[in-house]
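Quick one: structure tokens for this chain, please?
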Amino acid sequence: MFHPRPFDDAHTQGHLVHFTLQSDYPSRRSPVLARNVVTTSHPLATQAGLRMLARGGNAMDAALAAAIALVVVEPTGNGLGSDAFCILWDGKELHGLNASGRSSAQWNPERFAHLPAMPMRGWESVTVPGAVSAWADLSERFGKLPFADLFGPAVDYAERGYLVTPVIAEQWRRGAAELNAQPGFREAFMPNGAAPKAGELYRNESLGQTLALIAESKGDAFYRGALAAKIAHFAKEHGAVLNEDDLAAHSNDWCGTIAQEIGDVALHEIPPNGQGIAALMALGILRQFDLASMQPDDVDAVHLQIEAMKLSTADVHAYVADAAAMTDVAASHLLDPAYLASRAKLIDRKRAQNFGAGSPKHGGTVCLAAADESGMMVSYIQSNYAGFGSGIVVPGTGISLQNRGFGFTLEKGHPNEVGPSKRPFHTIIPGFVMKGREPAMAFGLMGGPMQAQGHVQMVLRTQIWQQDPQTASDAPRWRILQGLEVALESTMRPDLVEGLSERGHSVKSEAPDQSFGFGGSQIIQRVPGGYVAGSDPRKDGQSGGF
């Protein structure tokens, strides 16, 4: 039996519980309070992480075992062909890892010139996957357990099978209807010719064998060995140019973080090529308003958040790309306090607007969090992008490949224009909150373009309005669409919906369990003696901890 050591309260001095555990919104669960905690979107992945803690591993071991298990049990959102990002507090210092892959060295604008936009599916949407390299690098630098041990639960789930949960079964059904003709998809994901139904046992023995090979080789087989050869061979067979040299050239970046203060905390995000900077810009704009004097579900508060997010998103779409390509407008320009203050002045507190980009320089995803009694906290996210990614599955391996190439643009001269050996614009972002020099919260939120918007909402609810992680996760969300259009969860208060409509927002009500468009959050917040965790009721997983 696992007997955790008493939590070292020295790590939590100054982090009093300012919130009151509450239940203001419909929910299927209560917050988890524990000295060691893992929260994911699937109970089997949570169990995998907790097993590592019980064996004497740390939060990084737990996070990686959960991430590896999610490849098996939630293939609708991620796979071995995913990309990944991580922010972690190792007990003394904050670290950021960018494990997103680059395009083939043979990709160039001319290759796609005959198309109206970048392909969303198929081989021409596939860039080099980075998740496997993230597992290896994070384990080597921060893990306690042997790398191979982290794969035990995932291999077991793949080879012996697991029962498909209802939400994933519905996502699977939708994905299969669209992707069944993609190379390798039917063989891997449509046993007996159809997507598995809720409660059906699903096995993927090929995936289990591949995971075992990755474990044995510490990931090397994926980038330079037998698996790399199979990926490259299948690409060539279908006219794609991704090859073994592209895979072997892959490397991750220990990139640190960029941050934005609000109140007495700071939100940290991974620097571009990701969209995390959009959340930081929105918070920088919102600093110009007294949000603390408002209530979280006041129409004034929600209106300001929506307008700030529209302003930051317009700039991100215009300027954010692979950091190496942001030669004119850099992240520092977009985060300049004077620039964000000038953007805030464009907001009409009583009327919705459609904003364009400013001039900052004049001239289908899975997320998880883990924390342990030593003080280590991890926010980790990996994704195939759109559900099942490209739809390509390498035969006999279980390797489903992402479609991150769709993140490029064909707009000539744009910093995010498709090119060789280049990282595309990314949607997946881990989040981390610091309070002074101490960690306060590790969190993430799934859902493509919803992620930066969700980060803003989660930070404000937990840090400014002092909602506990579960209440913040349960609260109804908004999501900007195009122009003045904004999607609102159907559980949002009628008076709030009416108030937003009166301000000129074109509101669209969506049921969270039908659209999947509002993401699924995982939050771990530090308190004296341990942690409080919240997990999103929009997903059918659950959090858990010792």
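The longest helix spans residues 299-319.
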